[in-house]
Amino acid sequence: MTAFVLSPQGARRVDERLERAGLLDLAMEEAGRGVADVLHAHYPGGRVLLLAGGGANGGDAFVAARHLQVLGRDVDVLALPSTHPLTRLNRRRWRSVGGETGLLSPRSLRRALAGAGVVVDGLLGTGFTPPVRPALAQWLAQVQRWREQRADRRVVAIDLPSGLDAASSEVTDEVVQADHTVTFMGWKPALLFGAAAARAGQVTLLPLRVVPEWVQEHAQATRPSDPEVAALLPVRRADAHKGSAGRVWIVGGHPGTTGAAAMAGVGALRAGAGLVTIHSLAEVPLVTPELMVRRHPDWPATLLELGRSPLPGALAVGMGLGPEAAAVARAALSWNVPTVLDADALQPELAGAGHDRCIWTPHPGEAARLLGVDTREVARDPLMAARALQSRLGGVVVLKGGPSVVAHPAGLSVSRGGHPGMASAGMGDTLSGVLAALLGQGLDTPGAAIAGVRLHARAGERAGARHGYGLIASDVAGELGGAWADLLADREAGIQACRSAGVMLASGHAGPPE
Ligand SMILES: NC(=O)C1=CN([C@@H]2O[C@H](COP(=O)(O)OP(=O)(O)OC[C@H]3O[C@@H](n4cnc5c(N)ncnc54)[C@H](O)[C@@H]3O)[C@@H](O)[C@H]2O)[C@@H](O)CC1
């Protein structure tokens, strides 16, 4: 199923609606019980110490304590005073089943930690506003030291590790390092990006059965599952031929950087394009004989002329294109065919020159240049950066990263998967080829971006399993066919899931070009 990304503001809105409907108690019960079940399944041994803060995050901890006791676990609870009605109610319920609650203090914490095997961090959730107050910072540091002292000690965070700003990828020293985070309703942005995501450890998302449509309504982004992505991919008829599988041009390559164009070409071929031609300024290495190469020593003049010949189904522009990139990209955009813009073609002066069928593919550094901001600002909130870029550039934006964000006119989508070995040269060039290939096979712009990013990441996972951190872009290209087959195996399940949930990922596949 599609998972959703919920900003802290979105979570608050759902919270308010649940409260108005009298359903918050039910949601907290489900959340706390889910924490207990996940904890018990993953960490079956050791005494459990639950730390309950004053807000609803602490209320979840009291519910979890009750259910852990039912599961036969030895449980201690230390809590801060609370004025939150449901947290107080669940504290009373805990007491009514014989549970005791100590007041959280440096001394009580030291004593309880000495006997604990697992700590449940229910101190701060989405209601936290940075910075952490000094008293709390001191307790969080105590928990950190306890965890670091022995390898078998575990921290399970409720909703998100305490001290983490749910909206940001950045961390401060106070943020608890969790082994596992059980989050509710939707992914908080901090659980997806950068150093913040690394503090969460393994993440289990509990969607909660209480009114999922409110979560969808207030979501900041979607996170489609593999079957749903697979539903976007085209399926060929038995009589398919190279003309019906899409004709792609790769416009890139300058003396010294022709490899970039070659990798994009291979990416396009391996993502199913029927015919791929590289138009380059310099001689492109013959990486595979299936690629056609046309050299334009006097471009951009001959390239402009190219616009008068039969145009391809899609093109990718910019990979290793060099100083002429903006002029060439402008000419290519005037042809008005589905176009991927990458690398040297990602020039601020092209804002406003694009059209609806463009996919712009910046990495955070390029995104920062396009937006006129610091790279750190982009990295802190990739969702906001992708949204801002899409408003500025139009079409669809793929903000590359682990994970990548796709911003399209109807919303934001965050990709799944990938492999850390993909942090290597040429990976983006390969992706550009993949995206152009999918556009050439008739996918609409958002559909090509969402499916292409996942296909590329899946190929990266396959290549990573073989080559680890030593994987190179060509390995990923080599796994694209296998990745496609993996995704297609789930296609029917995805179509059914989209229909029954009424979820539109993107309008998807318009059918192969005739
Ligand atoms: N959104 C929903 O509908 C649901 C939310 N649930 C839980 O509710 C949580 C949010 O609850 P709340 O909004 O009550 O907020 P939290 O419980 O996350 O935090 C509020 C508490 O943190 C303290 N606090 C805030 N900033 C601080 C700082 N800088 N230093 C020290 N203390 C600080 C406040 O004084 C207050 O006691 C979620 O994270 C989740 O765990 C669950 O019960 C399931 C349903």
Summarize this structure as a short list of keywords or feature phrases:
514 residues; alpha/beta; seven-stranded parallel sheet; 43% helix; elongated; binds ligand NAX
List the helices and strands and how they pair.
Elements: E1 3-5, H1 8-20, H2 24-42, E2 48-52, H3 56-70, E3 75-79, H4 85-96, E4 102-103, H5 106-115, E5 118-122, H6 134-149, E6 154-158, E7 180-184, H7 194-199, E8 202-206, H8 212-218, E9 221-223, H9 226-230, E10 247-251, H10 258-270, E11 275-280, E12 292-295, H11 301-306, E13 314-317, H12 325-334, E14 339-341, E15 358-360, H13 364-371, H14 375-380, H15 382-393, E16 396-399, E17 405-408, E18 411-414, H16 427-440, H17 445-467, H18 473-489, H19 491-501
Ligand NAX binds next to helix 1, helix 2 and helix 3.
Binding site for AMP: 400-404, 428
Cofactor: K(+); Mg(2+)
Subunit structure: Homotetramer.
Assembly category: single chain
Return the CATH class of the largest domain: Alpha Beta
Q: How many separate domains?
A: 2
Q: Helicity, in percent?
A: 40-55%
Bulk shape: elongated
N-end to C-end Cα span: 33 Å
So how many helices?
19
Cofactors and ligands: ligand NAX
* CATH topological fold name of the largest domain: UDP-N-acetylmuramoyl-L-alanine:D-glutamate ligase
Q: How much is the average pLDDT?
A: 93
Name the structural class: alpha/beta
Main β-sheet, in a few words? 9 strands, mixed
Strand runs, count: 18
* Radius of gyration from CA coordinates: 26 Å
The portion of residues forming beta strands comes to 5-15%
Strands of the biggest beta sheet: in what spatial order? 12-11-10-13-14-15-16-17-18
Unreliable parts = 506-514
Instruction: Provide the CATH superfamily of the largest domain.
Output: Ribokinase
Write the CATH architecture name of the largest domain: 3-Layer(aba) Sandwich
Binding site for K(+): 57, 121, 162
Domain YjeF C-terminal: 225-487
InterPro entries: Carbohydrate_kinase_pred_CS, CARKD, Nnr, Ribokinase-like, YjeF_N_dom, YjeF_N_dom_sf
Domain YjeF N-terminal: 11-216
